[in-house]
Structure formats: structure tokens, C-alpha cells
Design a protein that fits this description.
The structure holds three protein chains of three kinds. Chain A is of the alpha+beta class. Chain A contains nine helices and ten strands. Chain A has a four-stranded mixed sheet with strand order 8-1-10-9. A two-stranded antiparallel ribbon of chain A has the order 2-3. In chain A, a hairpin with a 6-residue loop joins strand 2 and strand 3. In chain C, helix 4 packs across helix 10 and helix 5 packs antiparallel against helix 7. Chain C has one domain: Up-down Bundle (Formate dehydrogenase/DMSO reductase fold), CATH 1.20.1630.10. The chains are: A alpha+beta, B mainly alpha, C mainly alpha.
């Protein structure tokens, strides 16, 4: 059973936010109106977290792309009352939109705050012309349900179908999330963490590798490679 | 000069045979309703145990909670029955 | 005795609200009904448009509804404490108070549970809790224990009420009310056998209700403490919430007692001594609550863990400081001197202290929930913020009004002071207490002989 993970090289990341846009387009993540944005309700499954170190003229911006960590010990699935979010056998923390009752317990439990809630039926409020560009492989979420990054799980289903149709096994590179595919500086790597030969698995054991808030015991499967400057 | 407290409910000048049969029917309906409610709760908890077993999802938590919750409801059901039937049996004109 | 003779009863004043209805009743029902209607309209708006009509956002995704849920469930400990614990400890002064407390419990449990359902993004999917529930989730523990407590406290309200309903049945035989009383009185005649059944049932229920009540507020606290969020993931939450619940419940009971005493002229039954004793109980709870709060915050401060300290300072000196310090004032600074000093522990004094405590405990729920959500571990939101919208305020007002309305309707149908218990007290208290005194030390219980 593959365990899908991601590695992000912070040296190569330019914070261009192509991954954010790609994710939004690929997954029909609705954008919200300005009023809702000001009320702090915008949704972005992939987000660039920024931190400023020091002050002018020695200020330094550090940033890291933050998808869902797809934890192997997810605090969010534990608290869902209706099994609407669960860890599937391939390591992806999946959401079942038709089952979610909108209690938002998983949002409260996630230490990385990667989960988003449809306060209104945002998808239906997107102008019709833009809705035409929806990805037909991804269901749009109604109001009142929680959503988050799924490592473009629909692409995995399509890749599996394709491989089955062609009567071959799933090859590395068949399945790649939109953000990883789009990254212009190739800062993101994706693959099977349980396959020791895969690039992601090898990067995950690099001395530069770290995971966010690892000490909480969530076992996140998104690995960051620290900027080399830290190593002099 | 103590006032005698004549508590009307202790006198037997109010025979209960005068009551319409609908009274008993209503009481039994409520009692059955309560039993159905308790039964539904037990059914609900059992279903949750079943699902957690089928989905291989923390079966032990379901069993643990059920071991505490189900006895509470069954006990309350027993208590309501005890009061209902006990009061009927304890009537002055008992024999009904 | 025929209908209409209720005035010849010894405790006629307790039956007056049931048998005579004045314009004040209709006015109260009209006002409360209007407020409930406002709440219902607010909810309909929310149901149709989505939770976006509230003030919730990222990262504060839980707000007023959850605060009110915890607050109302907290008040439900009024019934348990007074009714069950005082009954078990055979405190004679509980007699006029038990019914008042038990009704509060049943009503606020229902309203508290309703608040959680109001908070759901997809209320049309509530049945999923029954089809697809997972017992690993604290919300399911909540659902189960609140249901258990609601059932247990309803039974515990009803069973001791049977003799009182029999009194009403004998006074009122016409119409739907006569029928209702006949049905509910279960053929009570006051025979010795029936008394035995009832006393045994009440005694056993009193023992059962206490652990169920403790479990309810403990699992409510587990909703927060089972997550990994800063200043939520604390082992103190279980006992802290239970203590807070008993605290706010006693205060709510006291306010209810004062209001009922005024409007139903119950001065003979609810004497200053009842308020005095409850005031002393509340004093103990003030100190206990302060102790728990102090332990919680000192531990956090000493540990100096970065994400927890952000939440801590947000409460102490930051955005939520006004609410935090208001909570301390309302929960400690105002009630403590009033309740500690004999001269101020009067009816008026204890009512002032209780109102202050109710406000303070609501603020405590707010302070526990919102600042932690507003300061997530990952600092991408810098500092979250939250302001309630008119919908949330409408629903909150509607909930309080619904409580008041149902309480008023209850007191219209059933005696709000337990007549049979008061009468039993009148007959037997002296005897009971004398016998008890004799057991403390031989010779103590004997009354002095003659002049």
C-alpha cells in the first residue's frame, strides 16, 4: 500500500503562489467576495505562510507552502462525530462531503488550521462564467461542510483507472497533485513515502528535512527541506 | 391547639373507579412510549458499536461507552416501571 | 372537596398560580413569546442562508453557540446539586427548593442541546449522528450523556411530583387539565405502600442522578480538552467545568428563587435562611472556582510554552483582557465580599452576587473558547477576531426567553414549590431532627421538660 507524501524544498520556493492558484483551479475552491474576505473567511487549501524576521534594513521574509499535512496520526479524524473525515488506507486524510454535518470539530482540533468551512454556499456564488471552468472531476462543496486539501485525490483515482485500463501497475509520476505539477521552480516533490527508492522517501530522510510541529505526534507526511543558508 | 392538617389525598373519599378508561390508556401509552424511547437509545448505541466494528474504527470506545450508557437507560426504564406498577399495586382499593 | 375549593387548602398560595390567571401571566407570555419568535426567525434566516450570517470566521470557528451550549449545560447542575445532594444529605431546608431546581435542570438541558444543533452547518443531517456516529468523538459522548441526564432528570422531576399532581387532581377534575392530572397522578392515594414505593424510587434516583450529572459536564469539557490546542489541552478541564457548572447552577437557582418568591408571594416558603444557606454554598464555590482558575493559569504561565503564552497574554493583557478581567470581577471580586460577610448575605445581597456570577460564568465560557481559537498554533492568522452578529444575539435572547417561557408555563400547570415535601417537612422535620440529635449524643435530643 503506498503512503503518499510530499517534500517541499524551501530553498527553491519563491513564494510565487502558483501552487495556490493551481490548487484553487483544480479543486473548484471557491473564492469569496470582498466582504467575506474582510470577515476572514477566504479559503485556500494551499497557503503560503509567511514570517518576517528582523526589521528593516535587515528584514528577511521566510515562507513555506502549507497544504494539509495528511497526518498519519490525525487529530481531526479522531473527533469527527460522523466519520466524514477519515484516514484512508493510502495515507490520505479524506473528506466525505455528503456526510459532513458541519460541526467544525475537526477545524477546532487541527493544530495546523488547514481545514476550511463553507460559511455560505460560496461555490454557488462564484459568477456563472467562472463556474464553467470548474474541474468536472472534483465535486463542488455545498454550504455547511468542511473541506481541505486532499492531495488531489481525484487524480489518484484517475491514474489508477488509467493504469488498470492499460493493464499495468501504477508508476511513480502517474499521480501528481496540481500544486506539485505546477510549481515553476520544481520545489515540490511528491510520491510514495513507503517506497525507499522514491525521491520523496529519500528527501524525507535528508538532514535538511523537518516537519511542522512534529512534537505534537501528528506524524505529518509533508516534509520541508530547510533553507541551506541555515547550514552556512 | 394544633391545626389538623387534613391532607385530602389520604382520605378515601375519592374512589378511582370513577376515572374514565382513557386515563389508564393514556398512562400505558406514556409508559410504552418511554420503553420505546429507551429501546431506541439501546438500538442506536448498538448500531454505533456495529458500525465501529465494520469500519475497524475504535471498537473499544464504543463498547466502553455502551457499558456505561446502556445500563443507565435500562435502569431508568426499570425505575419508571417500578413506580408505575408499585403505585398501582399500593392503592387502597388494590386488587386491580 | 369540589373544584374551586382550593383556597381552603393550607398551602393555597402554592396553588394560586395554577388556578388563577391574571393579566400579568398573559403579558409575560406575550413578551417572552415575542422574544422566542425573534430567536426562531433568526434561526430560520441562518438555516436558509448558512452559518455565514453569524460572526464566525477563521480561525474563530466556534463562538456564541458553543459558549451558550456550555453555559446552559452548566446551569443544569442546579437541579442535581440541590435536589439530589441535599436530599441525600438529608438537609431539611431543601424542601421548598427542590422542584424549582429540578425544572431548571430539565429545561436548560434541552436548550443547551438545542444550541449545539443550532451550531451545525448542516442541521438537515442531524440523523447522521444516529446512523453514522463514532464513539471516539467527544461529541457523541456529549450526545449520549446529555440524553441520559435529560431522561434521568425528567424522571427525577416527575416522580416526587406525583403526590402534588394528586392534590391537583383532587381539586381540578374538568377539561384537559383534569385529564392530564388524572393521568399523571398514577392513582396516588397516599397509602403507606405507595409512600414506600415513592420514597425508595426517589432515594435511588437521587443517587443515580449525581454521577450522570458529573459525567455530563465532564464530557462537555472533553470536547475542548481532547484537542491539542493551547490552553485547551489541560487535564484540569473535567473538574474545572464541573465546579463551574455547580457554581453557575447555584447562582441561577438563587435568582430563580428570588424571582418566584416575588411574583408568587412565596415569602413564607422561601425564607432568608434558604438564601443564606445557598449563599454559603455559593461562597464555597467562589473559592473553589478561584482555586481552579488560579491553578490553571499559574501552571500555564510557569510553563511558558510559546503557543500557550500567546493565548495567555491575549487573555491577560491583549484583545480579550477586558472580558477576562470582567470575569474575575464578576466571579470573585463582587460575590466574595457579599457572600462572606453575614450582614450582606441577605436575599438582596445573594441575588446581586448570583446575577454577577451568572454574567461572570458566561464570560468564563467565552474566555475559555474564543481566545484559544483566535490564537492558533500556526501564526498565519496573526490574531483572529470575533464579533457576534445580530443572528447570534437573536438566537441567544430567544434561548433565554424560551427558558423563561417554558418555566412560566410549567408553573402554570404544576406547583413550583413541592407541596408534599413541604407538608412532610411540617409534619416530620422536628421529629427527624430530634432523632438525629439523639444519635449525635445521647440526651441531646430531649426537649427540656416543662416550665
Amino acid at each position: 500500500m503506498p503512503r503518499w507524501g510530499m517534500a517541499i524544498d524551501l530553498d527553491k520556493c519563491t513564494a510565487c503562489q502558483a501552487c495556490v492558484v493551481a490548487c484553487q483551479v483544480e479543486n473548484n475552491v471557491p473564492f469569496v467576495e470582498e466582504g467575506e474576505y474582510r470577515r476572514m473567511r477566504s479559503m485556500s487549501w494551499m497557503k503560503i505562510i509567511t514570517e518576517t524576521e528582523g526589521s528593516f534594513p535587515d528584514a528577511r521574509m521566510r515562507f513555506m507552502p502549507r497544504p494539509c499535512m495528511q497526518c498519519d496520526n490525525p487529530p481531526c479524524t479522531r473527533v469527527c462525530p460522523v466519520h466524514a473525515t477519515y484516514l484512508n488506507p493510502e495515507g490520505i486524510v479524506a473528506q466525505i462531503y455528503p456526510r459532513c454535518i458541519g460541526c467544525r470539530f475537526c477545524i477546532a482540533a487541527c493544530p495546523y488550521t488547514v481545514k476550511y468551512f463553507n460559511w455560505y454556499a460560496y461555490h454557488d456564488r462564484v459568477p456563472a462564467e467562472l463556474q464553467q471552468g470548474d474541474n468536472p472531476d472534483v465535486s463542488s462543496r455545498p454550504r455547511g461542510v468542511v473541506e481541505k486539501c486532499t492531495f488531489c485525490h481525484h487524480r489518484l483515482m484517475k491514474a489508477k483507472d488509467k493504469a488498470a485500463a492499460e493493464e499495468r501497475a501504477l508508476q511513480p509520476g502517474d499521480y501528481i497533485p496540481a500544486c506539485v505539477e505546477t510549481c515553476p521552480s520544481s520545489a515540490m516533490y511528491f510520491g510514495d513515502l513507503s517506497d525507499p527508492a522514491s525521491q520523496v522517501a529519500q528527501l524525507a530522510s535528508s538532514p535538511r528535512a523537518f516537519r511542522l510541529m512534529e512534537d505534537l505526534g501528528t506524524k505529518p507526511k509533508v516534509v520541508y527541506l530547510a533553507e541551506r543558508k541555515l547550514y552556512g | 391547639m394544633a391545626r389538623t392538617l387534613r391532607l385530602p389525598m389520604e382520605s378515601s373519599d375519592r374512589p378511582l373507579e370513577n376515572q374514565s378508561p382513557w386515563v389508564l390508556r393514556a398512562q400505558l401509552t406514556v409508559l410504552i412510549g418511554f420503553s420505546v424511547f429507551a429501546g431506541l437509545v439501546v438500538l442506536w448505541i448498538s448500531r454505533l458499536i456495529y458500525i465501529s466494528w465494520m469500519l475497524e474504527d475504535v471498537f473499544s470506545a464504543s463498547i466502553g461507552i455502551a457499558l456505561v450508557a446502556v445500563p443507565v437507560f435500562l435502569f431508568l426504564l426499570a425505575m419508571v416501571n417500578y413506580v408505575f406498577w408499585g403505585l398501582r399495586r399500593g392503592r387502597q382499593d388494590a386488587g386491580h | 372537596m369540589a373544584d374551586g375549593d382550593w383556597r381552603k387548602e393550607d398551602d393555597a398560595i402554592l396553588l394560586e398560580p395554577i388556578f388563577s390567571t391574571g393579566w400579568r401571566f398573559y403579558a409575560t407570555v406575550a413578551v417572552l413569546g415575542a422574544l422566542v419568535l425573534w430567536g426562531i426567525v433568526s434561526y430560520v434566516v441562518q438555516y436558509q442562508q448558512g452559518l455565514g450570517v453569524t460572526g464566525m470566521n477563521y480561525p474563530v470557528s466556534w463562538a456564541f453557540y458553543i459558549v451558550n451550549f456550555v453555559f446552559f449545560i452548566g446551569i443544569s447542575h442546579a437541579g442535581t446539586l440541590i435536589s439530589a445532594i441535599l436530599r441525600l444529605s438529608q438537609a431539611e431546608w431543601r424542601r421548598p427548593i427542590t422542584r424549582i431546581a429540578e425544572v431548571i435542570t430539565v429545561l436548560v438541558l434541552g436548550i443547551g442541546g438545542m444550541n449545539i444543533l443550532i451550531d451545525l452547518g448542516r442541521a438537515d443531517r442531524i440523523p447522521y449522528l444516529f446512523y453514522y456516529g463514532r464513539y471516539q468523538s467527544p461529541l457523541l459522548w456529549d450526545a449520549t450523556s446529555v440524553t441520559a441526564y435529560l431522561t434521568a432528570s425528567s424522571v427525577y422531576l416527575y416522580v416526587p411530583m406525583i403526590p402534588d399532581i394528586a392534590v391537583l387532581r383532587d381539586r381540578c377534575t374538568r377539561g384537559w387539565r383534569g385529564f392530564l392530572y388524572q393521568v399523571l397522578a398514577l392513582g396516588w392515594e397516599g397509602t403507606a405502600a405507595q409512600h414506600r414505593v415513592l420514597n425508595r424510587a426517589v432515594a435511588i434516583l437521587a443517587v443515580l442522578v449525581v454521577p450522570v450529572a458529573v459525567s455530563v459536564h465532564t464530557v462537555v469539557s472533553f470536547v475542548f480538552s481532547m484537542t491539542l490546542q493551547p490552553m485547551w489541552h489541560s487535564t484540569i478541564f473535567g473538574p474545572y467545568f464541573v465546579v463551574g457548572a455547580i457554581f453557575s447552577g447555584t447562582a441561577a437557582l438563587l435568582v430563580a428563587m428570588a424571582i418566584l418568591r416575588k411574583i408568587f408571594h412565596l415569602e413564607d416558603y422561601l425564607q432568608p435562611i434558604h438564601f443564606n444557606f445557598l449563599g454559603l454554598l455559593m461562597l464555597v464555590m467562589v473559592l473553589l472556582w478561584t482555586y481552579f482558575t488560579f491553578a490553571e493559569y499559574l501552571t500555564t504561565y510557569y510553563g511558558n510554552e510559546p503557543s500557550e503564552m500567546r493565548v495567555f497574554f491575549s487573555k491577560f493583557t491583549g484583545k480579550y483582557a477586558p472580558y477576562f478581567w470582567a470575569m474575575v470581577v464578576f466571579n470573585l471580586v463582587i460575590p466574595f465580599p457579599i457572600l462572606a460577610w453575614n450582614r450582606t448575605r441577605t436575599i438582596a445581597g445573594t441575588v446581586v452576587a448570583s446575577i454577577s456570577i451568572i454574567i461572570g460564568m458566561w464570560l468564563e465560557r467565552f474566555i475559555i473558547i474564543i481566545p484559544t481559537l483566535a490564537n492558533p498554533r500556526l501564526r498565519q492568522y496573526a490574531q483572529g477576531s470575533y464579533l457576534p452578529s445580530i443572528v447570534e444575539i437573536g438566537i441567544m435572547v430567544g434561548c433565554f426567553a424560551l427558558f423563561g417561557l417554558l418555566y412560566v408555563l410549567f408553573s402554570k400547570l404544576f406547583p413550583i414549590v413541592s407541596i408534599s415535601e413541604v407538608r412532610e417537612g411540617r409534619e416530620k422535620t422536628v421529629e427527624i431532627v430530634q432523632e438525629r440529635l439523639a444519635r449525635y449524643k445521647p440526651g441531646l435530643g430531649k426537649l427540656p421538660q416543662g416550665p
